[in-house]
Amino acid sequence: MNKELKYSYAILHSVIVDKSYVSIELNKVLESVEKSVNTATITKIVYGVLEHDITLDYFVSQFVKKSPSIDIMILLKMVAYCSKAVNGIPPFALVNEIVDLSKSIDRHQSGFVNAVSKKLISSEIVLPSKSNVKKYLSVKYNFPEWVISELLQKHDVEFVTALVSKELPTLTHIRINEKKIPVADFKKQLDTLGIKYTDSLYGYTLYVDYARLLDTNLMQYVIVQGLPSIVTCNVLGAEKGKVLDTCAAPGGKAVYLASNPDVVVYACDIHPHRVDLIRKYAGSCGVTNIKFFAQDATKEYTPWLDLFDYVLCDVPCSNLGVSRKKPDVFLNKSLSDVKTLAGMQYAILENSAKYVKSGGVLQYSTCTILDNENKDVITKFLKNHKDFELTPINVAGLNLYNDNNMYTFYPNMTGTEGFFIARMKRK
Ligand SMILES: C[S@@+](CC[C@H](N)C(=O)[O-])C[C@H]1O[C@@H](n2cnc3c(N)ncnc32)[C@H](O)[C@@H]1O
Predict the structure, then answer these.
(1) Where are the beta strands (DSSP E) in 201-249?
(2) Coil, strand or helix: which one is 405?
(3) C-alpha–C-alpha distance, residues 392 and 404, integer Å
(4) Ligand 1, from 245, 255, 270: best to mutate by most atoms within 8 Å of Cβ?
(5) Nearest-atom index, ligand 1, CA of 229
(6) Superfamily of structural domain 172-224
(7) Which overall architecture, per CATH, does domain 227-426 show?
(8) What is the pLDDT of residue 90?
(9) Strand 388-390 vs strand 401-403: parallel, antiparallel, or unpaired?
(10) How far does residue 249's CA lie from ligand 1's centre (Å)?
(11) Mean pLDDT lowest among 75-84, 196-205, 310-319, 323-332
């Protein structure tokens, strides 16, 4: 049996059925496979199927009367994807291999798998009619229809089309540690090594070919951090005093905030093992003005009442803004999950607000783009807390969507992943 297909199926099954993280499952398998196995092919199949999950679902559904079991559906999506996008497995060999694999899953289904696979390899994907705009955009750009429906309640079709079709830079966004190297010297070394890069918003941020960077001694100067994550820290404006990061793991923002020696960062997370991640990350970056707490941000901790100059709530969210980086974010998610998350986000914000000093700043951020987890949470909070008011933010060079001083990073406007920031001041 083709080992690349077998391993790809195992990973996809863990991600789709058992809800495991794709990066973790993939790494586990790639570290343990025999030398002869082509790991690039496995990566391509796994990411390809996940990145086109909705499109493939639609394609397969054209050839089946009733939806097969999820295990068989994964196999059919693999056939559909591999036959269109993976060179090196001839179509009929592909069908034979998938049929063999299906026998080890449910041998009664192998005839069905054989028949549908043959149709899939000999057909092209025909998109739904443009008259059904939600379905059309969903299938063409692999965005869930329910997300498109929510977006269309706020924006017109043109905007939503631009948003769901936006392609983002494939290079990795990094922050250069200017304390260790001047940016000009860092760039010179990239040029010498022939490593591709492009400028980003700040002088100390770049998009680089990270795979090439990994093999060099330049890694010591680099922190991988998305642009919205850097922007939210800069916008917070924590110049001095005490900063509370209520949901801090794995630590990207807390450690960046602590690069300012005039602040002390209290980095918290509800999960002790995730607090360890922040501790490790801070240690590896040589940051010392940071304290660590395993703390549930929805539960009041009286010693912290009115204590902080700045409180950042970078809350857990549906991650819908980062689907380009994490192709599994759309799996097993619905509008009701978003609504449940909004309840938790509100609870975190409401409790954390108590820790802000008079005149201090409370900042809320998510990496999602739907109002349910963003504007709606803030609007409800402000209605119930008249002692807080939104403050405008302005990030030169970044085209943020400003909704009454609540700011969404829509990829089609910012060229970044989706994100949201609301910065409030306690009166
Ligand atoms: C979006 S992530 C934070 C990312 C982080 N700010 C960074 O820049 O690396 C959200 C975090 O909130 C944590 N979390 C979830 N519920 C929480 C709660 N009730 N209190 C505190 N942390 C919570 C999760 O464990 C997760 O690590």
Answers:
(1) 205-208, 222-224, 241-245
(2) coil
(3) 8
(4) 270
(5) 8
(6) Sun protein; domain 3 (3.30.70.1170)
(7) 3-Layer(aba) Sandwich (3.40)
(8) 87
(9) unpaired
(10) 6
(11) 323-332
